[in-house]
Amino acid sequence: MISATFVAGISIALFGLSLASAQQDQVALHGIKPLPNERYVMVTFLSGIEFWVPARKGMEHAAKQLGVQASYQGTEKYDAIDEARVLDQVIASQPTGILVTAQNPEALRPTIDKAVDAGISVVMFDSDSPKSKRPVFLAGDNYRIGQKAGELMARLLNNKKGAKLEVVTTIGQLNMTQRSSGFEEAVEKHGMTVVRTVEEGGGYDATYARTKEVLQAAPDLDGIFDCGSMAPGASKAVQEAGKIGTIKIIGMDLDNALMDLIEKGQVAATLVQGAWHMGYWGLWMSYAVAHGMVDAGIPDFKQAGASPLPAYVDTGVYEVTKENLKFFRNINKP
Amino acid sequence: MISATFVAGISIALFGLSLASAQQDQVALHGIKPLPNERYVMVTFLSGIEFWVPARKGMEHAAKQLGVQASYQGTEKYDAIDEARVLDQVIASQPTGILVTAQNPEALRPTIDKAVDAGISVVMFDSDSPKSKRPVFLAGDNYRIGQKAGELMARLLNNKKGAKLEVVTTIGQLNMTQRSSGFEEAVEKHGMTVVRTVEEGGGYDATYARTKEVLQAAPDLDGIFDCGSMAPGASKAVQEAGKIGTIKIIGMDLDNALMDLIEKGQVAATLVQGAWHMGYWGLWMSYAVAHGMVDAGIPDFKQAGASPLPAYVDTGVYEVTKENLKFFRNINKP
């Protein structure tokens, strides 16, 4: 028969070893309990587009660190009712938290509020529903994105006074309007002028046709900022006019078509949003609320009308040119 | 002699029990190693003011959850050189991270960059040094604070068309200018007008004297928004004119003097910043960078020119009136 002390001694020694080994690659979060069946779901519209990939990867990165499950659900269509239906299904599955972006702020609002009222820890990213009950919104600041594009344009044109610029935008769409306003304000400070603002028109062909018209009306154009994703359309018109390199083009976001054009020098630069941070910090914030980790320093924060989270996180934007493109090649790969 | 299997069986069972017990009040962060002598320091100017207390409490709350040390250092004076000196001493002590607010953006910039270059995980809060190398800034959005004050004023005055308002501000100080602009924009949407903008003048007495003049020139005034901390001065003038209740006063932040005036109904409301979130998420973000937990989804994010953190966190603002004041009573208590 062995003595209890002897066994305890061995087990403590082994336990000590196990802890030491565990501590090499993990730290503890104190005062926080794991939740049963802990699970977070990201919900988007237009689930097929590459834009969501970094957001999803950011969420999965945080989920791995926290040891929780995270999954992704989206609706293929750009349709508010369809998105509300998917969000409803996700709510019915009773996840711990939801990270959601709204195709339409008002159409999705009742379903978002339903999720909050059901005790699900909701955060919003990319496209907000500001009047809903979500505590926080994580996204790029479109006005600042426009300003950054304007500063970049000034550098690309070596601060050429009197430079003439075209803006490609979608009039009436808030994020686009904010980007073009920020751009215009920034270039005006450098003595440059937006001489033409054209409608993107929802496809490369429309942007191509309208930029072609602009180039005929203003052959001395110096630069183009496409607030949306149609810079390849503008690039085609500039190429046909034999003005590649003379006319600097700045796009938004980064897909394969744009990567190729930047590589070839046909598009000077693009602005890539910090979508990864939306997913990463979105999950952290959802987790923090679900676990009661945050109270704004006010124990009765709900009754007080205080929020357990910051109001807004500006997830930033990066300039991508031929020089640093290689680092961004895999950003949209799942 | 006992068999190895037997001991292993017991030790695994005991280890399992220990883990289960530990799991009741802590969770693990996976893939993250503790750092030797891990320590975070908050550095401010005007260390005596109550405003920093919630920020400090937020930092300490996060530090407790993460099991790291956090301390506070400040300079008593409102002096940039003095703050740079204190920050230099903190850098020399080689902390893991620093949470710093700048009395002057340019004067503190070289010292902030020195900290970043020394490998210290720096984040900034409340007052930024935007051209420094800090990756993130956490603070209230002063323009939105002003808008919120304007919306609140409209509600307090029951949307009275043609209402006449006074703004007390410090002309030339960026945060104040942003607050008064946001306020003016919001009230104009409700058909109200800012008829007088006066200098706060750095004390209750100056604000009292100037508001007294305004009340003589515009006896039909409906409301006052003090963008700074001198609402008690404005309140005294309104009281002497026998207009308490008729003229609605909105202040900023919350100290004992303002608490008393709100309690007595002499000041209608104040806007309290989410300073707790500056400290709480500031520490989390500093910790995340120090531990290599975040890379923006781009392995070579430094060479790419991408940031490991969001660009900006808007820490929000809360409306405090007589109705919910009791919940905020202890917000500035250490």
The DSSP helix count of chain A reads 12
Give the mean pLDDT of chain A.
Answer: 91
User: Strand share of the residues of chain A?
Assistant: 15-25%
Order of helices and strands of chain A: HEEHEHEHEEHEHEHEHEHEHHEEH
Greatest interface by residues involved: A-B, 66 and 65 residues
Poorly predicted runs of chain A are: 1-23
Helix content of chain A: 40-55%
CATH topology annotation of the largest domain in chain A:
Rossmann fold
Number of strands of chain A: 13
Instruction: Name the shape of chain A in a single word.
Output: elongated
Distance between the termini of chain A: 57 Å
- Derived from helix and strand composition plus strand pairing, the structural class of chain A reads alpha/beta
Characteristics:
334 residues; alpha/beta; Rossmann fold; 2 domains; 6-stranded parallel β-sheet; 12 helices; 13 strands; disordered N terminus
Task: Explain the overall architecture.
- Two copies of one chain form a homodimer.
- Chain A is α/β, with parallel strands linked by helices and 334 residues long.
- Chain A has two domains: 39-140 and 275-316, Response regulator (Rossmann fold), CATH 3.40.50.2300; 142-272, Response regulator (Rossmann fold, 3-Layer(aba) Sandwich).
- Chain A has twelve helices and 13 strands.
- The first copy, chain A, has helices at residues 4-23, 52-66, 80-92, 105-117, 142-156, 174-189, 204-217, 231-240, 256-263, 275-290, 301-304, 325-328; strands spanning 26-30, 39-44, 69-74, 97-100, 121-125, 137-139, 164-169, 193-199, 223-226, 248-252, 269-273, 312-314, 317-321.
- A six-stranded parallel sheet of chain A has the order 3-2-4-5-6-12, sandwiched between helices. In chain A, strands 8-7-9-10-11-13 form a six-stranded mixed sheet, sandwiched between helices.
- In chain A, helix 2 (52-66) links the parallel strand 2 (39-44) and strand 3.
- In chain A, helix 3 (80-92) packs parallel to helix 4.
- The longest helix of chain A is centred in the first third of the chain and has 20 residues, at 4-23.
- Chain A is elongated, with a radius of gyration of 25 Å.
- Chains A and B meet through helix 1, strand 1, helix 2, helix 10 and helix 11 of A and helix 1, strand 1, helix 2, helix 10 and helix 11 of B.
